[in-house]
Write a structure and sequence with these properties.
Elements (H helix, E strand, L loop, with lengths): L2 H11 L5 E5 L3 H9 L7 H12 L8 E6 L1 H4 L9 H7 L3 E5 L4 E3 L7 E3 L5 H10 L4 E8 L8 H21 L2 E8 L7 H21 L8 E2 L16 H15 L6 E4 L6 H14 L6 E6 L1 H11 L6 H19 L6
Parallel strand pairs: 1-2, 1-10, 2-3, 3-6, 6-7, 7-8, 8-9, 9-10
Antiparallel strand pairs: 4-5
Helix pairs in contact: 6-7, 7-8, 8-9, 9-10, 10-11, 10-12, 11-12
The protein binds 1,3-dihydroxyacetonephosphate.
């Protein structure tokens, strides 16, 4: 394992108040997003939409890494420029989603296990040759009647740890993403409890597999009430509970914690991150973002699949990237 490369890369991804852009939506998810603006999900449309965002002026000031889907890592612009080179020219680290999605966990209705370990070492080798320097694997934990079970938490933690070690051996920084979903009517206490148990299991498994903690990025959910819960906490309570949970569970060796947005609005995701960084001035890890929807919702709406809207779409995206970078510095948006 090239420890220096892993440590340097992980630090670079979150340096100088930068965060990550997740544009690694799988085929089914990007179709759902395009359906909301009435655009057909063709390979060309996906390329045009994503490459427009990636070409935004000075994007590297706010974004340290971009998570791509397999198709995008292999794609080129109409003029032949590889998308991965466009990303590198911005001073941004290219990364790749390597999991094969959350599938039903046999015997545990409503719960999932993320698949993709089979053949992973060979896929990592190819992705490195295509220019990727980090990877992402998302485990999904569902809160419901009787769930999550310890079977689901243990199985997902084990898979995350095996993935992380395989990536580090192959030369990719693993983003370790255990997402406790916001779906449901559970309150913020339940989310906090489940997040704590999940993170404990994940770090136990990472240690058991000998993962170098200085060479990973953790991508967790914030501690937040379920989206159908009638009582929603304010940003101060979300910040306090989230950071308290992370302090209990995440070793100081981890260089960066980049939250997923998970269904929060753009404004909520930015505000919550800003309040965390304002309230906790020097946590042991960088507290940053790795947003998908919370960086793209306005930009996608602006685009509408029309070339004449590309500049407005880029501007909307850059504005979100800038606000989230400022949130990493503890600046509360006006
Ligand atoms: P959201 O920020 O839209 O939750 O997406 C982040 C992500 O990469 C989920 O795996």
């Amino acid at each position: 394992m090239d420890e220096n490369f892993l440590i340097d890369t992980a630090q670079k991804m979150v340096a100088d108040h930068r965060g990550l852009l997740a544009i690694d939506e799988s085929g089914g998810t990007i179709k759902k997003r395009f359906d909301t603006i009435g655009v057909v999900s063709t390979e060309e449309n996906r390329r045009d939409y994503r490459s427009n965002l990636l070409g935004a002026d000075d994007l590297g000031r706010y974004i340290g890494g971009v998570i791509l889907f397999d198709e995008t890592l292999r794609q080129s612009l109409a003029d032949g420029t590889k998308i991965v080179d466009l990303i590198r020219a911005q001073g941004i680290v290219p990364g790749i989603k390597v999991d094969k999605g959350a599938k039903p966990l046999a015997g545990f209705a409503g719960e999932t296990i993320t698949e993709g370990l089979d053949g992973l070492a060979a896929r990592v080798e190819e992705y490195v040759s295509l220019g990727a320097q980090f990877a992402k694997w998302r485990a999904v934990i569902h809160i419901g009647e009787g769930s999550p079970t310890s079977a689901a938490i243990t199985a997902n933690a084990h898979a995350l740890a095996r993935y992380a070690r395989i990536c580090q051996e192959g030369g990719l920084v693993p983003i370790v993403e255990p997402e406790v979903l916001m779906d449901g009517n559970h309150n913020i206490h339940t989310c906090q409890q489940v997040t704590e148990v999940t993170l404990d299991a994940v770090f136990t498994a990472l240690k058991a597999q000998g993962v170098l903690l200085e060479g990973i990025i953790l991508k967790p959910n914030m501690v937040i009430a379920g989206s159908d819960c009638p009582t929603q906490a304010g940003a101060n309570e979300i910040a306090d509970r989230t950071v308290a949970t992370l302090c209990r569970c995440v070793p100081a060796a981890v260089p960066g914690i980049t939250f997923l947005s998970g269904g929060q609005s753009e404004d909520e995701a930015t505000l919550n991150l800003a309040v965390m960084n304002e309230t906790f001035a020097s946590p042991p890890w960088k507290l940053s973002f790795s947003y998908g929807r919370a960086l793209q919702t306005s930009a996608l709406k602006m685009w509408q699949g029309k070339p004449e809207n590309e500049a407005a779409s880029r501007d909307a995206f850059l504005q979100r990237a800038r606000l989230n970078s400022q949130a990493c510095a503890g600046e509360i948006p006006a």
